[in-house]
Specification:
Helix content: 40-55%
Strand content: 15-25%
Shape: globular
Largest sheet: 3 strands, antiparallel
Radius of gyration: 18 Å
Structural class: alpha+beta
Strand order of the largest sheet: 1-2-3
Number of helices: 6
Number of strands: 8
Oligomer: single chain
Length: 192
């Protein structure tokens, strides 16, 4: 049964949903697993509970969990901004139906974007590169700092991409679109 109104509440023992409480680690995992990818506003409410728990001293997030939280926030803000700017397009899904996909429109064309692949790309390109170059401890700290620098707070919107964040996402997507135009679609990775 789903509550008619999504209203999570942070407590010292976890996030309360009516009579049910989930732990903060579970909430972080739900964000990372994509359970809120189609309900970004609800995910933002969940994220607010996590951040309030940190601020209240109820929990301390490991560097890994901080990276997950900030990566999720960054992608949620990017997807929301692209949705507001460009809208959606219907894209065929594997079940024979259609899903609404958010459109990124850049200087080389447009492409549909989805939260999970965006997070995967950031994990690969930002975290992976930083860890490879600087080692685990410093690499994770640098990746986290970069994510934090890519988002700013805004009095009207709450969060928005910083100039660094906008430039990073534009560069990433424009280069991918250009690659598709010159080389065709890359092969799909094999999932094991």
């Amino acid at each position: 049964m789903v509550d008619s109104v999504f209203s999570p509440e942070p407590t010292s023992t976890g996030i309360r949903f009516g009579n049910r409480v989930i732990g903060y680690s579970v909430a972080v995992r739900q964000l990372d697993d994509g359970q809120y990818d189609k309900r970004i506003p609800d995910g933002m409410d969940l994220l607010a509970c996590i951040l309030e728990a940190v601020e209240s001293g109820w929990i301390t997030l490991s560097i890994e969990k901080q990276i997950i939280v900030w990566r999720w926030l960054l992608v949620a803000v990017f997807i929301t901004e692209e949705l507001e700017k460009n809208g959606t397009i219907d894209v065929a899904n594997e079940q024979g139906g259609f899903d609404a996909a958010v459109i990124f429109s850049g200087k080389h064309g447009a492409i549909s974007v989805y939260p999970a692949p965006e997070r995967f790309t950031l994990a690969n390109h930002v975290e992976g590169c930083a860890i490879q170059k600087y080692g685990l401890k410093i690499g994770q700290q640098l990746a986290l700092r970069m994510y934090q620098d890519m988002v700013v707070t805004d009095n009207e919107r709450g969060f928005k991409l910083s100039p660094l964040g906008r430039e990073g996402f534009d560069m990433l997507h424009d280069s991918f679109i250009k690659q598709i135009q010159t080389e065709g679609m890359p092969d799909m990775p094999v999932m094991h």
